[in-house]
Amino acid sequence: MKNHLIRFNVKAGLAIVMLTGLSACSTLGVEPWEKDQLARADMALDSEKLDMALDDHIYFSKEGTSGGRSLAGGGCGCN
User: Fold this and answer.
1) What whole-number distance in Å separates Cα of residue 72 and Cα of residue 79?
2) What are 5-45's pLDDT values in tens digits?
3) What is d(CA 71, CA 65) in angstroms, rounded to the nearest whole number?
4) How far is CA 11 from each of CA 1, 8, 19, 24, 76, rounded to the nearest angstrom?
5) Which residues form the DUF4266 domain (predicted)?
């Protein structure tokens, strides 16, 4: 009898975990009233100019390229 109760508790616990996991996926996406928080300047990927300059330095050092982010060209000299 005791073994049966343990199996039931395990199955009930597993069902609760699965239902919780499935219901967590129902809130995906950004609601219109939440977009103002994501549009803040400090939430941008390039909000810090020093971080952006360091990232560019590392990228161009590794790639052997020069120029800005939107210019064509590579380390081989081709355009």
Assistant:
1) 6
2) 667 788 888 888 888 877 776 667 778 888 888 788 877 77
3) 10
4) 16, 5, 12, 20, 62
5) 30-79
Q: Tell me the C-alpha distance between 64 and 76, whole Å.
A: 8
Q: What radius of gyration do the chain's Cα atoms show?
A: 26
Chain position carrying tokens 């069902």 = 15
What span, in angstroms and rounded, lies between the C-alpha atoms of 51 and 45? 10
Structure tokens at 12: 């009930």
Q: Nearest-5° angle of CA 51, CA 46, CA 31?
A: 140
Find tokens 């049966």 and name the residue.
4
State pTM to two decimals.
Answer: 0.33
